[in-house]
Design brief:
The chain is mainly alpha-helical. It is built from eleven helices and no strands. The protein has one domain (7-227). 80% of the residues lie in helices and 0% in strands. The protein has helices at residues 7-21, 28-33, 43-64, 66-78, 80-108, 115-126, 128-154, 158-172, 181-184, 187-204, 207-227.
Length: 228
C-alpha cells in the first residue's frame, strides 16, 4: 500500500486543498482596503471578489508548483496534437457520462438543476464576460492543479488516483448546495468529468492536457449561457 501512496504528497495535497477550500477568505483583502460593505454586496461585486481571490490563489499555486509545471508544459507542447487528441477523447467520454447521469437524475429522481449550476448561472447573469474569464480560464487552472496535480503526486496507483480525484472533485461541487438527499446524487455527473480529466492527465503525463479540456468545457458552457 505504501508503494501506491506518497505520504509527503498526501500531506502537501491536504494543505493545498485547505488553501483552495478557504481561498474565499482572500476576498477580505479588497473588502478591507476598499471598505466594501459586505452586507450590501451585489452579484456583480461578488463576481469581482471571486475573480480577485481566484487570481491570487492561482499565483500562489503557480509559485508552489512552478518547477513541475514547467516540465509538464514542455511535455504538453512537444506532443500537442497527441495530447489534445487524448484529452478530447476522454472529455467526450466524461461528457456522455455526465449527460446520462443528469438525465437519470431528472427523469427518475425528479431532481432539478444542481445547486452549483444555479449559483454559476446567477454569477454569469451579473457579469457574463468576467465570468467567462473566471469560470472558463481561472477555475480550470486552479481545479486541475488542486484535484489532478496534487492527487497524482499523492497516489501512485493509476486507478486510486483517478477514483479519488474524480470523487473529491465531484463532491466539492455539491457540498455547499445540499438541501435534500437527492442533491448528493449530483456528485455522479460532476465526478464523471473528474474521472475523465484525471484519466487524460494519467495518459499524457501532463496536467496541461486536463487543463485544456477543462477550459474548453467551461468556456463552451459559459458562452452558451451568455448567448442564450
Amino acid at each position: 500500500m505504501t508503494k501506491q501512496i506518497n505520504v509527503n504528497g498526501i500531506i502537501k495535497g491536504i494543505l493545498i486543498f485547505l488553501l483552495f477550500y478557504f481561498s474565499s477568505l482572500l476576498q477580505w483583502i479588497p473588502v478591507i482596503l476598499l471598505k466594501i460593505d459586505v452586507n450590501r454586496l451585489s452579484n456583480s461585486m461578488s463576481v469581482m471578489l471571486s475573480s480577485f481571490s481566484n487570481i491570487i490563489l492561482l499565483l500562489i499555486l503557480f509559485f508552489i508548483f512552478r518547477k513541475e509545471l514547467r516540465k509538464e508544459w514542455v511535455i504538453f507542447r512537444n506532443k500537442l496534437s497527441n495530447n489534445l487528441d487524448v484529452g478530447f477523447k476522454y472529455w467526450l467520454c466524461g461528457l456522455i457520462g455526465m449527460i446520462i447521469s443528469n438525465l437519470i437524475l431528472v427523469y427518475f429522481f425528479k431532481a432539478g438543476q444542481a445547486g452549483n449550476e444555479k449559483t454559476v448561472q446567477t454569477m454569469i447573469q451579473a457579469l457574463p464576460w468576467l465570468m467567462l474569464i473566471d469560470a472558463g480560464i481561472l477555475a480550470p487552472f486552479i481545479e486541475e492543479i488542486v484535484f489532478r496535480k496534487c492527487f497524482k503526486n499523492a497516489f501512485k496507483n493509476k486507478w486510486l488516483f483517478i477514483l479519488t480525484s474524480g470523487l473529491v472533485f465531484g463532491g466539492i461541487h455539491v457540498i455547499h448546495n445540499i438541501n435534500t438527499w437527492i442533491d448528493i446524487l449530483f456528485i455522479v455527473p460532476y465526478s464523471c468529468l473528474g474521472f475523465a480529466f484525471a484519466a487524460s492527465y494519467d495518459k499524457t503525463d501532463t496536467v496541461f492536457t486536463s487543463i485544456a479540456i477543462h477550459m474548453f468545457h467551461n468556456i463552451i458552457l459559459t458562452l452558451i449561457s451568455i448567448l442564450i
